[in-house]
Design brief:
With 369 residues, the protein is an alpha/beta fold. It is 46% helix and 21% strand. It contains 14 helices and ten strands. The termini are far apart.
């Protein structure tokens, strides 16, 4: 089913967020509930019942023929085939979009399998495409985590920039207990603040505004990305907000050595030049010395002595060593567990291979008893 967007921005840049699967759809619903403006929303799912609960103005049931609206059953290859089946409908929904955020929870069926196809379609259409995905909690099991890693690798091939939020880190955000609902809300805030900051910088008048070319310069073909947000008040608000934005405890990244950085500062009208300079300098000091730093600022009377710093960083100097280190670690794990190594070599889309995965899972569980 398809609906026309009723909040389309006829001036400025058309920014769209597409939620793929259950996790992505929930993220979209929370963003809509927050009252976000100047952004269009699209929800895609193989499960017609779940899709009916989406608050997005535009919804597409993908793979209607292959899944009959019953979902992907946790199998990424089914999600992938569903997106391929609905490729034309997805492309039609993305027409006129300048920048697309692809939100998904990795590890299940629809989000893991369909998100890379959605990103591929967007890139082929010349749309600046950013992926923001979550990785499962450890208690969700090894197989779901392995599926998530495979999905992330597939998505990385088709996005300009990719932000990964490991759900496991949500447990360490506070000394007090965090509820499951609150955990997902916190994870979704990374997406919400990142999207809102870019939208505000481009489309809403402020003290210092950017154009879409500025954002494209930082985000296009950038690879791994960092989105951090810090908000603080009091005499140390600039340092506290900047510190939180630079090293978000939710992400697997920091901005150390980043060659592309977007800084967005929102503060009360009485913000001092000293505070703005301090926050900006702290970000600049940890980025690459020759980084392309794009800066924007706006005043908000509702902030009441508060300051919010949003940092979006890309093109990390340390990204390649990080990948090499990860590869070495994976090789060590494969030596310990040959069955797991086999799982990682398999790709989505072959039913016989899927059955082999199931068989090895059964065998491994027997020996693990």
């Amino acid at each position: 089913m398809n609906f026309e967007i009723d909040n389309y921005v006829d001036k400025g840049v058309a920014i769209k967020v597409v939620g793929v699967g259950g996790g992505g759809g929930n993220a979209v619903n929370r963003m809509i509930a927050s009252g976000m403006q100047s952004v269009e929303f699209l929800s895609l799912n193989t499960d017609s019942q779940v899709l009916s609960s989406s608050n997005a103005a535009q919804k597409i049931q993908i793979g209607a023929k292959s899944t009959r609206g019953k979902g992907a059953g946790g199998h990424p290859e089914i999600g992938q085939k569903a997106a391929e089946e609905s490729r034309d409908e997805i492309a039609t929904a993305l027409k006129g979009t300048d920048m697309l955020f692809v939100a998904a929870g990795m590890g299940g069926g629809t989000g893991t399998g369909a998100a890379p196809i959605v990103a591929q379609i967007a890139k082929e259409m010349g749309i600046l495409t950013v992926g923001i995905v979550t990785k499962p909690f450890a208690f969700e099991g090894r197989r779901r985590m392995e599926q998530a890693e495979m999905g992330i690798l597939a998505l990385r091939e088709h996005v300009d920039a990719l932000v990964v939020v490991p759900n496991e880190k949500l447990k360490y955000l506070s000394d007090t207990k965090i509820t499951l609902v609150n955990a997902f809300e916190v994870a979704d805030d990374v997406l919400r603040h990142g999207v809102q900051s870019i939208s505000d910088l481009i489309n809403i008048p402020g003290l210092i505004n950017l154009d879409f070319a500025d954002v494209t310069a930082v985000m296009k073909d950038a690879g791994q990305a960092h989105m951090g947000v810090g908000r603080a008040s009091g005499k140390d608000k600039a340092a506290d907000a900047a510190t939180a934005a630079i090293s978000s405890p939710l992400l697997e990244t920091s901005i150390n050595g980043a060659k592309g950085v977007i800084i967005n500062i929102i503060a009360s009208p009485d913000i001092s030049l000293e505070d703005v300079d301090l926050a900006s300098s702290m970000v600049r000091d940890v980025a690459h010395p020759d980084a392309n730093i794009i800066w924007g600022a706006a005043l908000d009377p509702s902030f009441n002595d508060e300051m919010q710093v949003t940092v979006i960083a890309t093109n990390f100097e340390t990204e390649e060593p990080f990948r090499q280190e990860k590869k070495v670690q994976e090789e060590k794990e494969e030596e310990k567990d040959p069955a797991a190594a086999l799982l990682k070599t398999l790709k989505f889309g072959d039913e016989e291979e899927k059955q082999e995965i199931d068989d090895f899972e059964v065998i491994r569980k027997i020996f693990d008893r």
